[in-house]
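Dear Dr. H.,

I hope your travels went smoothly. While you were away I took the liberty of generating a structure for the chain from your last submission, since the lab meeting agenda had it listed for discussion. I wanted you to have the full record in hand beforehand rather than looking at slides cold. The sequence, exactly as received, is reproduced here:
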Amino acid sequence: MSRGRPQKVADLMQRELADLLRREVRDPHVGMVTLTSVDVAPDLSHAKVFFTLLDKAKQGATTKALQRAAGFLRSQLSHRMNMYTTPALRFVYDESVERGDRLSRLIDSVVPPKR
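The corresponding predicted structure, in token form, is as follows:
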């Protein structure tokens, strides 16, 4: 079964962006960032990059720092991926991890432990 080109591009972008963030971005506000997923538009013009942090208090500063670095990251991606056009990047904080953790704690608080 084929996953389609946008999904393959998204997977490759996620790997390359994670490497670029770890090795190339020198902004101190971009610390321990984990890229959770990348959604690429069907026409490959835009990409939404979802990320999460260990310290949620730094979310605003990190989002701004990633947006400032988006142009640099896009240019580096164009060299690494050899695409005709590289999608424009938009960074979005991923709250799904926190929601999942909160739901898990709620379930644990209601369900009695097995003996």
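Two observations you may find useful: The chain has one domain: 5-110. The two ends are 44 Å apart (CA to CA).

With kind regards,
E. W.
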